[in-house]
Design goal:
Blueprint: E1 5-9, H1 11-20, H2 27-36, E2 41-45, H3 55-64, E3 69-73, H4 77-86, E4 90-93, H5 113-125, E5 129-134, H6 138-147, E6 151-155, H7 157-165, H8 168-187, E7 191-195, H9 203-207, E8 214-217, H10 219-228, H11 230-244
Parallel strand pairs: 1-2, 1-8, 2-3, 3-4, 4-5, 5-6, 6-7, 7-8
Helix pairs in contact: 2-3, 7-8, 10-11
Pathway: Cofactor biosynthesis; pyridoxine 5'-phosphate biosynthesis; pyridoxine 5'-phosphate from D-erythrose 4-phosphate: step 5/5
Catalytic activity: 3-amino-2-oxopropyl phosphate + 1-deoxy-D-xylulose 5-phosphate = pyridoxine 5'-phosphate + phosphate + 2 H2O + H(+)
Keywords: Cytoplasm, Pyridoxine biosynthesis, Transferase
Amino acid sequence: MGRLRLGVNIDHVATIRNARGGDHPDPVRAAEIVARVGGDGITAHLREDRRHIRDEDLRRIQEATDLPLNLEMAATEEMLAIALAHKPHAACIVPEKREERTTEGGLDAAGLHNQLAPICARLADAGIRVSLFIEASEKQLEAAMRLGAPVVEFHTGEYAHAWIDGDREKVARELKRVTDMAALAVKNGIEPHAGHGLTYENVQPIAAIPQIAELNIGHYLIGEAVFVGLENAVLRMRELMDAAR
């Protein structure tokens, strides 16, 4: 198995900053720390309501580090224009609702094909790697194939919730679902990633899936950073991921 990449989502550094206004703590500083300790990428979600990452953060992150930026974005004309202006390494299209606290579930790529197709095409034409944040299901994976997405990120929220609930049967079921769909993705030329709700305790079974190329982890690492520092939090996650491989 190849080395599993770790993308660190720095949204919630910006959440803390925005709680008081001003510029501290700076998500750009978090991106610099991630780069220094061997992270493989930075993920940032520019939401419609700008609840954490702000527009100007994107440019500053790109200027501060050579790590690839994975921009999470809703499938809207506003976000498409921003992505085309900043040209991140990758754009991961996610579902988005104003009232949600965090992204709830995967994108309905099958039901939204006609809305997604022109957005995916324009991103690809600009040299931006398109990713779709979807549930690990054949229906959604087939939709990603029809859309020509080179990458999918499987939503691991159900797996994470089952782990917290101690529901071993559901954990096993969800793990098998992600494992099977990762294999199917690779068979069809799509690179599978995974993320949402991953922690020190539950990351290794997902990390051990041989076809998964990248994990994107944010909220948990920023929470741990409050206690041990971001550098140590990222290094510990990296250690666990490597041990699983």
